[in-house]
Backbone:
């Protein structure tokens, strides 16, 4: 029975993460970029100054109104979900199966994906609404219902159904399993005799994570925002600094590595060897799919978090979508890729690889302590992902069944955290991957259909800010 499910899911997964879907996702980003004059490049500095620049400036917004969070808390909640195991394990797998050239296509998907996420976030603010508890709620299901109209509510229901189910897999079981296995591996490295207690270690890790989730969800959206606001900057700094140590220790390899990335993007066999069987299509699909999987541009998940922001307007919050993709893929995913490629760690191309390869790359500098470095990164990345995806799943379930479902859904979510820590999850990974990709279909249909609204809001924003005057002086 399990084998049959795996076969069926494999067929579906091959379609939803296949070339047509990737063309839809990347093509949407290209279309939006062209229509908005490649805003992410022309005004990148403006986007950074008015997002992360303002969040940490002296006039940064410290509090939010009732039922909302600050813009920084909204973006850290979204980043907590996107910066997950995909930034470590996903990048490693993309390189192993697609060669160094996969990194190039991952970056390309991020560059055009910036305006896809900008559009999603802008629409989530424009069409959000208050729920029965007085909280701001939004996301694809709401901009479908309130933007496209009641006759398209079925499309919103489709997204919410997929999102509520995907949260159990991609945002729960798979993440906590990564936490448990990484902690177990680290303890086994330090205390080899502990291997006989691996099940107990994994179970304790799951129980601890479930308790953290329960205490966070009890406080509602404000507590989730408060936790991610503190956790995300710390985890990003720890991982980036650790990565830079490895990169600078092997700085002499930077030229050949960048050459392998660019050459491998268009002629993979010249880098990995023709016998491996990695062609340009494989490099492209592996890179693009991992990029989208990591930064979630086009999947519709992050707008759910951004909808709760106490912001001045849709475009002001939409700018955070540009920053979010930049931080997730251009910065953190690139760090992982450079660590693996510059460390000189042997890579068996064409063979799936995971955290072991990342451990080996960090070990070239940190030695036996590498597993601890990676474990800390994975625990923070995956733990924050669980917190945020619990919110996403709750909002999707609430859209379907109303406020009465919130607590039961969160209780079940926390129970699965414990179960996931001790499960064999190869099938769960595959199904979660499929559900995650399927979310993109109703979301992108809505984003493209409502894109004139985004274009209009951006024009109005340009006319009301110094941005237009700066542009006209050039």
Residues:
């Amino acid at each position: 029975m399990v084998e049959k499910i795996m076969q069926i899911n494999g067929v579906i997964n091959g379609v939803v993460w296949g070339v047509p879907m990737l063309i839809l996702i990347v093509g949407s980003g290209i279309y939006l970029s062209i229509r908005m004059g490649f805003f992410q490049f022309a005004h990148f500095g403006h986007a950074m100054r008015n997002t992360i620049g303002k969040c940490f400036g002296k006039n940064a917004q410290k509090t939010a109104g009732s039922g909302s969070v600050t813009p920084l808390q909204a973006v850290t909640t979204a980043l907590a979900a996107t910066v997950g195991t995909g930034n470590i394990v996903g990048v490693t797998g993309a390189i192993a199966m697609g060669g160094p050239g996969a990194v190039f296509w991952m970056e390309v998907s991020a560059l055009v994906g910036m305006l896809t996420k900008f559009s999603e976030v802008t629409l989530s603010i424009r069409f959000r609404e208050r729920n029965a508890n007085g909280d701001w709620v939004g996301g694809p299901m709401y901009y479908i219902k309130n933007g496209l109209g009641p006759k398209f509510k079925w499309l919103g229901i489709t997204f919410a159904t997929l999102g509520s189910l995907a949260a159990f897999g991609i945002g729960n079981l798979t993440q906590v399993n990564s936490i448990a296995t990484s902690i177990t591996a680290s303890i086994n490295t330090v205390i080899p005799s502990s291997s006989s207690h691996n099940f107990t270690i994994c179970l304790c890790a799951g129980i601890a994570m479930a308790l953290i989730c329960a205490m966070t969800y009890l406080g509602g959206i404000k507590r989730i925002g408060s936790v991610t606001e503190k956790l995300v900057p710390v985890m990003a700094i720890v991982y980036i600094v650790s990565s830079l140590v490895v990169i600078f220790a092997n700085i002499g390899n930077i030229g050949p590595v960048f050459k392998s990335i660019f050459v491998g993007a268009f002629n993979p066999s010249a880098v990995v060897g023709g016998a491996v069987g990695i062609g340009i299509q494989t490099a492209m699909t592996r890179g693009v799919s991992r990029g989208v999987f990591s930064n979630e541009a086009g999947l519709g998940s992050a707008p759910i978090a951004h909808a709760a922001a106490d912001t001045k307007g849709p475009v002001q919050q939409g700018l955070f979508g540009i920053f979010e993709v930049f931080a997730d893929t251009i910065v953190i995913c690139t760090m992982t890729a450079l660590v693996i490629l510059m460390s000189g760690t042997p890579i068996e191309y064409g063979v799936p690889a995971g955290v072991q390869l990342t451990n080996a790359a960090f070990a070239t500098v940190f030695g036996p302590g590498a597993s601890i470095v990676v474990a800390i990164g994975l625990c923070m990345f995956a733990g924050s992902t669980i917190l945020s995806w619990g919110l996403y799943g709750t909002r999707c379930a609430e859209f379907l069944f109303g406020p009465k479902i919130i607590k039961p859904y969160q209780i079940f979510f926390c129970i699965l955290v414990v179960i996931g820590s001790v499960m064999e999850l190869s099938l769960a990974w595959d199904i979660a991957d499929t559900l995650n990709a399927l979310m993109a279909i109703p979301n992108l249909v809505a984003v493209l259909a409502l894109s004139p609204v985004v274009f209009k809001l951006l024009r109005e924003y340009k006319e009301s800010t110094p941005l237009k005057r700066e542009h006209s002086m050039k």
Summary: The chain is about 75% helix and 0% strand. The mean pLDDT is 85. The CA atoms of residues 161 and 396 lie 7 Å apart.
